């Protein structure tokens, strides 16, 4: 990289030396934006455009032997445009090996773990025929779908892409893996059911052929197949999850994955680590002892052994009970300390910035409770739960719909269109709020019955079918009891027993 830059500057200098003095002076006075940008970088390593927008090189053995890796269309224009506009500021794809290394750091792992656990904490609820729903739920438990999706979401946060392979007992049959898995009876049936789900990390897979010419094509920038450790696997056999999809021109550079949550959080984590280390160094050496003495002999090259030995002896024996003897006429001894007020706030703010990009409340990510007058985390939790619900609906719903169709074909040989599922919301009301709502509903039901809008039987049926009701699932068949009047005893049976006693 630096050799190319030096060669470019040398060619530029040689081309200007033969010009007139006026032109040379004008060019000397002109400072390009590229030079200013290089100066602001302070020598930091950056990504060249050809590195930023180039197709990543797969690991050895991922592609079949002898397969050529063709160049991408129009990437030269993108690279030159990015270079001229100085857009290659470390925004390129970091690479799966480096992202795997970052997963070892506690900050990235905790963010991914919290996100994945909350995506699958309440999970889904299947609706439809009760007998079929029960069998489907048993099959989901056998395949350990909830845990597989939790692991998949966690890896998607690390890498930006993940696959779940549906195995029908043909994981080692190359000819069968390359064939499209149509969700039909001839490919999936009770005689050929799904056997297991397997997680495929993106470093072991690579995109196959796709259409890069016709934007109207259904497989425009959508790989028709993937290469997994040298085997071609049709895309229909892989449940692919991409959380943050890239624009079409950048999809090849990201191996048709998305930008990972790790990469999005990296600037904030880097700031936190740098601030944490700076504060640690500051606290470790916030106090400096100063000896004011005659340094003329030392600065002029004279013997300084006695002075340095004296200072070393003091530093080695420096404690609260240490004493430094000085000459009262020619020397002075002082202590210079850096004020530490406000450092804790800077450190906390640097740490709290990690919560902004991950959308995770501070109480969950860092265990920090909000402070101040009427401080509450309710709003932050509701916003976080809404983000989780939006993520699972956008990323997890398509593969789950495909998986449920495959499970139905494996169990029943057909797909029941009435079988649906929904994600259970994470937000729950408090017991007091639930009681207030039930009381309000009871008053409304009583008012409707008194006015003849609905009958008591309809109210009982509504209470029986309402999942939030205290009487959900209770057998309320039969006529409702007569309402009590003012002259009726509230507990007649108990009153008779009391009189008899």
Please outline what is shown here.
By secondary structure, this protein is mainly α.
Highlighted features:
mainly alpha; three-stranded antiparallel sheet; 501 residues; flat; 47% helix
Radius of gyration: 35 Å
Distance between the termini: 102 Å
**Nearest-integer average pLDDT:** 77
Largest sheet: 3 strands, antiparallel
Q: Count up the helices.
A: 20
Low-confidence stretches: 18-29, 44-52, 70-89
* Strand-pairing-aware structural class: mainly alpha
Number of DSSP E strands: 10
What proportion of the residues is helical, as a percent range?
40-55%
Describe it for me?
The protein starts with a helix and ends with a helix. A three-stranded antiparallel β-sheet has the order 3-2-7, with helices on one face. Strands 4-5-6 form a three-stranded antiparallel β-sheet, with no helix packed on it. It has a two-stranded antiparallel sheet with strand order 1-10. Helix content is 47%, strand content 9%. With 501 residues, the protein is mainly alpha-helical. α7 (106-119) packs across α11 (261-284) and α11 runs antiparallel to α14. β5 and β6 form a beta hairpin.
Topology (SSEs and partners):
Elements lengths: L1 H16 L3 H9 L3 H9 L7 H4 L22 H10 L11 H7 L3 H14 L4 E4 L2 H13 L2 H15 L2 E6 L6 H4 L18 E5 L4 E3 L17 E4 L2 E4 L3 E4 L19 H24 L2 E6 L3 H4 L5 H12 L15 E6 L5 H10 L1 H5 L3 H4 L12 H35 L7 E4 L7 H20 L5 H10 L26 H9 L1
Antiparallel strand pairs: 1-10, 2-3, 2-7, 4-5, 5-6, 8-9
